[in-house]
Amino acid sequence: MSQDNLIKLQCTVCKHVNYHTKRNKKMVKAKLDLKKYCKWCKKSVAHKELK
Q1: pTM for the whole thing?
Q2: Average pLDDT of 3-9?
Q3: Which domain does 24 fall in, by range?
Q4: Residue 22 belongs to a domain with what CATH number?
């Protein structure tokens, strides 16, 4: 993956960085907020995009 489009997703509950994904920064201006599974919390919780 290209490093300029790579973003990290952090769990809002336990603050672990669980996922890496990419997004088009020209088309999507807002930060991503996705509901994903966290293996430390053992449930699906919101994951927010890190800086």
Answers
A1: 0.81
A2: 86
A3: 6-49
A4: 2.20.28.120
